[in-house]
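Reader question, answered in our methods column.
A reader sent in the components of a multi-part assembly and asked whether the whole thing could be modeled at once rather than chain by chain. We filled in our standard form and ran it. Here is what they sent:
COMPLEX SIZE: two components
ENTRIES:
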Amino acid sequence: MDVQLEIKNLEKTYDKKVKVLKDINLQVDKEEFLVLVGPSGCGKSTLLRTIAGLESVTDGCIEIAGRDVTNAPPADRDIAMVFQDYALYPHMTVRENLAFGLKMRKTPKEQITAEINRAAKMLDIEHLLDRRPAQLSGGQRQRVAIGRAIVRRAKLFLFDEPLSNLDAKLRSQTRIELADLHQKIHATSVYVTHDQVEAMTLADRIVVLNGGDIQQIGSPMELYQTPGNKFVASFIGSPNMNFFDGALETKTDGRRVFSFAEGEFDFTNAPLPKNDGPCTLGLRPESIKVLAKKGREAEGPVDVKVKVALLEPHGHENHLVGLIESKQVIVRSANPHRLAVMNSSKKGDVLEASVDRSALHWFAADELGERLETVHPTLN
Amino acid sequence: MEITVLPAISELLLLLLILAGILATGIGYIWLNYKIWKYPFYLPLTLLFGISLGGYTYANGASQLAAAFFGTIPFLIGLYFKRGLKGDFKSSTYFLAPAVIGVIFLFLYPLVFEFYLSFRDLSLRTFSDWITTGHVPLADNYGLSNYIEVFQNRATGQSFIFVLWRTIMWTAINLFFHLSVGLVLALLLNAKGVKGVAIYRTLLTLPWVIPQVIAVLVWRADFNESIGFINQFITVVNQLFSFEWSGNVIMPLTWIGFEPKAWFLDGSALFTAACIVNIWLGIPFMMINFLGALQSIPHSVYEAASIDGATWMQKFRHVTVPLLKPVMVPASILGAIWTFNNLNVIFLMTDGGRYEGADILVTDLFKQSFTYYRYGFAAAYSFVIFAILCILTVIQFRVTRPRHASTT
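And here is the structure of the entire assembly that came back:
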């Protein structure tokens, strides 16, 4: 695969003091859909704007399609960008909005018309071409903004939180349209969002940023199943992962036990870090399984007793906020038998639950919380 | 010392008392009408009251016009209560009444009286007759001679057409510099990364904040022939930077056309000076207007334009100017009307009309009525100016009417 965008050792400092981006290294392949995700202030928008050339670079270099564009103006980078507030020209019709970029590049008239028709057809905005942005709904403006990128046939598409101005229903619909569009035109895209659902559903690869640092790069499932550190683990996945700060120890009888302030788990036959000592256990909400009275869902050791604090029914699944002594955990299940147990419980009831041994995440106890390698006891 | 102050205060208090009395009578009268308008014979009653009021004023020596005015007002108010106040609009029209009465007394009545005067020969010659008998003779040519005279050459040598031409020049020159300099300053203030914008903005707005009278008087001192800043500045710069070139002494400022002048005695120099002063005064308004409009343009639109490949000139032409237009058009039409009608700057620069050569229509009008006491003529003159401004206003409404956006 060709590399379409390459970022090497990129640094960005504001006012010679505030470091916004720290040594960013990134490669985006041709036709790839890369999503930059992170909490607000993590530098994801700044990174996108440096790629676009709207922000200068303090150090490092940016290459687009093999050409060094670190100091090139935005116009010379052959990119297209979709802004959060759409940034349509309010005094121009949709047609003129689409044509503007091509006109500035002195494209022949027939070609402009052809490109506009192609984009309009693709986005289903042909009937809107003679309207002004003020006469369009949010979703339509969004599509025009994307159309402005499509007509340019740019080497790189940049999206700066394009869905965050839409309401929830329209957002999920436009998300599907975006994914569909990407499958049609295969444009190399860099997409910024703070919404991890958007990141998971749209991305070929996700870059998780925090505090100007890349935390992890990987496919959505990689990030979900093997988060590289505690931050990624807590950021990806909804509801959040449950964390238990404690220590792993080997008892005199050979059992390996993870104990934390409110209790302990006996993990003798589970894949665990090699060494004992303080560490953090991460459990996804679905890895804590409420035990049913009978059937397959009743199998498994009773690891923990969860006191029901709040039940959030979502229809297809339940989120249960429970307490292990005083520690709050979130349990999720979509299994009908487990749902039945949850639904019949009341606040204050104590449910028995088992921990899925195959889905344990172990992190170092330090501030960074790097993922710890595990070994399966039977392989020893 | 304190004795000179006391009578003034007592006079003021008396005046305030009279004013309050008039106001109370007016409000009381309206209130009375509000109470009794539902009763039968209300309208004939107001008619009767009006006739007696008009007769009373006429008997006490008021003119026919004034008597007719006072005679009809109660009946009009009666009509207003009986026919004008209906249904849901009753209370709102009642609230409107004070404003309507204000407009009638302060605007409509003077306008009607002025129109009447424009056909009469009221001047210094007939003034005393008017005061003693209340009679003003009709002007010649069935009362039209005032209007004819407006377009004829005057004894002072000024012709209407020339003053009109100067007024148009005055408006055009001022407006051009107001708009262009205002726009440039607004663009500079709006530029990214300018430090201390608040300070610059305050300094640049100062001309607008200073009372015009004071500003013009200071400028007049600056234009003084012997001690004024302008002449001294030209002289000093000429002395400092003069040089010899092929046998001639070149003085840089004189060479490009600036010379120490008797600014108030030379007609065209006085006009130039007045233009400079008014330009200085008018720039901040346009600047603030444009700055507001510029700041309302989202930054991302410019970013989108730069990604689209527009240079800064293209951004200015295709983004800034079209988005400024909704502010620029009304501002320039308003500015045109204000400048066209600007009495104070020229009046003060010419020392109340003492210096000739810079008069525009309104100052000429002022001179005709209050310096030469040609009231009838001035009334006709002002109606001609009024007609010209009407045309300007119609153009304004035409241009600023919101275009119907095309919906398909």
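What stands out: The mean pLDDT of chain A is 90. Chain A has two domains: 3-228, 239-379.
Send us your own complexes using the same form.
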